[in-house]
Write a structure and sequence with these properties.
Length: about 300
């Protein structure tokens, strides 16, 4: 049985991993300073033991992005994934300012309500920028940081300048197009054999949620995540693991060593023969690296070896 708050199209999913994760999505009303009403927030929690791992998805995505990675991590560790404010299946209300500041505020109160202990924070693509921003703001919450093909060294989207009527509507309709999403998906994967129409449908399921376009427009108009300066990144003191697909065509590969240089206690591992989405294209290897990083002795993590 799928949760009733998911769009009806969830019943068309075919990938076993997507079906299983969709069936396990839960919702919780989270009280925040952002609005007088609690925000119904969707998330997945599996596994037990160890330092909690919290997974943060990319732009215009959902917890389903981690359908192949989360179950592998949960075999050995308590593992969470959450739909960020304005994204996924989390409720979108008109009075909220959808911006990076609002996203990290909502994420903090989600953490405080349901987890409330330091976590290993894992961010993929835009989720990496969100994870960096969160770590810098709430360092006491993050014990370790993992960045997967992370955004954060380049500024927000240039289309933010076009986000006024009627171009804002046209931009979101363009993003909604199945052909466009299929093209983006093909660019994100190195192995084209792994791409399926079911995977594209899975990645577009949240587009059917109420006010999806309004939230995307508002977030884009906010400027999104601006580039973090090296001086700012140097303030990250947590041991940091940088995982990067060696054939990333979305963000390229130049930012991986730049993150490594900027974050003192960090190490970089290249995921071979992989595009922008190691957690979907190479989930077993990605999980292995995260779990090994989780268990590294303190002296090894601090040295960045």
């Amino acid at each position: 049985m799928f949760p009733s708050f998911l769009p009806k199209a969830v019943e068309q999913l075919k990938e076993p991993a997507a079906i299983a994760l969709a069936q396990s999505i839960q919702s919780q009303a989270i009280a925040t300073p952002l609005t007088n009403q609690p925000i119904t927030t969707t998330y997945v929690c599996q596994g037990s033991g160890g330092i909690p791992i919290l997974l943060i998805h990319g732009f215009d995505s959902s917890v389903l992005e981690f359908r192949r990675l989360l179950p592998l991590l949960a075999v050995e560790n308590e593992t969470w994934a959450v739909d960020l404010l304005g994204f996924g299946f989390t409720d979108r209300t008109a009075e909220i300012d959808y911006s990076p500041t609002a996203i990290k505020t909502h994420l903090y109160y989600f953490w405080k309500t349901l987890i409330n202990q330091p976590v290993i924070l894992v961010g993929a693509s835009m989720g990496g920028a969100a994870a960096i921003d969160f770590t810098l703001t709430y360092p006491e919450v993050v014990k370790k940081l993992v960045l997967i093909d992370s955004a954060g060294l380049k500024g927000g989207s240039p289309i933010s300048k076009l986000m006024f009527p009627p171009l804002d509507y046209l931009a979101t309709e363009f993003l909604r197009s199945p052909k466009v999403r299929d093209r983006i998906c093909r660019a994100a994967y190195k192995s084209q054999q792994l791409i399926s129409s079911d995977g594209v449908d899975c990645g577009a399921l949240h587009l059917q949620m109420p006010s999806w376009s309004k939230a995307v427009i508002a977030f884009t108009k906010s400027g999104g995540y601006r580039a973090f300066r090296f001086k700012k990144l140097s303030q990250i003191l947590q041991p940091t693991l940088i995982l990067w697909g060696d054939a990333d065509k979305i963000l390229g590969t130049k930012d991986a060593p730049r993150f490594k240089r900027a974050i003192s206690h960090s190490k970089l591992i290249w995921i071979q023969d992989c595009g922008h989405l190691p957690h979907l294209e190479q989930p077993q290897l990605t999980a292995q690296h995260i779990l090994e990083f989780r268990g590294e002795p303190e002296i090894q993590r601090i040295s960045g070896l």
